[in-house]
């Protein structure tokens, strides 16, 4: 299973998970970011193991995010543990498993020159 990196605002979602076609870049919107199998989801993943409204990521402070499972059938897991209904504050490096897809959460960090870090500075998709 390949891992993808999820970044906030100017953050990148790298693709490639089996036959699931995911966008190569995503900008998280402020407020709730919904991941699911419903066409209106912010991140639409067309896979039977993904619920229509699977989970949501909410910014709870500048560069702080909390993930909630939205009563999905198979659950949302962070670092191998199933989320309960209280959600979880995301930390850099957290692995988020949604059905057959695994993401690695990384916060939006500024480089020393004041610009955003590039994909090369964060590393490539791991296998």
Question: Could you walk me through the main structural features you see in this protein, from its secondary elements to its overall organization?
Answer:
- The chain contains one helix and ten strands, in the order ββββββββββα.
- The relative contact order is 0.23.
- It has a single domain, classed as Tumour Suppressor Smad4, CATH 2.60.200.20.
- The termini are close together.
- By secondary structure, it is mainly beta.
- It has one helix spanning 119-122; strands spanning 3-6, 32-36, 43-44, 55-61, 64-69, 76-78, 81-82, 88-89, 95-98, 101-105.
- Helix content is 3%, strand content 31%.
- The longest helix is centred in the C-terminal third of the chain and has 4 residues, at 119-122.
- A five-stranded mixed β-sheet has the order 1-10-9-6-7, with no helix packed on it.
Write a compact overview of the structure shown.
This protein is mainly beta and 127 residues long. It has one helix spanning 119-122, and strands at 3-6, 32-36, 43-44, 55-61, 64-69, 76-78, 81-82, 88-89, 95-98, 101-105.
Strand content: 25-35%
Number of domains: 1
Shape: globular
Which structural class should the secondary elements be placed in? mainly beta
Total number of strands? 10
Helix content bin:
under 10%
Q: What is the terminal separation in angstroms?
A: 7 Å
Indicate the CATH class.
Answer: Mainly Beta
- Give the CATH topology: Tumour Suppressor Smad4
């Amino acid at each position: 299973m390949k891992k993808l990196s999820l970044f906030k605002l100017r953050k990148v979602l790298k693709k490639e998970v089996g036959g699931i076609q995911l966008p190569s870049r995503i900008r998280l919107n402020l407020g709730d970011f919904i991941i699911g199998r419903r066409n209106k989801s912010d991140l639409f993943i067309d896979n039977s193991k993904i619920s229509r409204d699977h989970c949501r990521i909410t910014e709870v402070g500048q560069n702080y995010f909390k993930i909630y499972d939205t009563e999905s059938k198979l659950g949302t897991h962070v670092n191998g543990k199933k989320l309960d209904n209280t959600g979880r504050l995301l930390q850099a490096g957290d692995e988020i498993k949604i059905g057959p897809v695994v993401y690695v959460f990384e916060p939006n960090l500024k480089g020393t020159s004041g610009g955003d870090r590039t994909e090369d500075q964060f590393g490539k998709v791991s296998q």
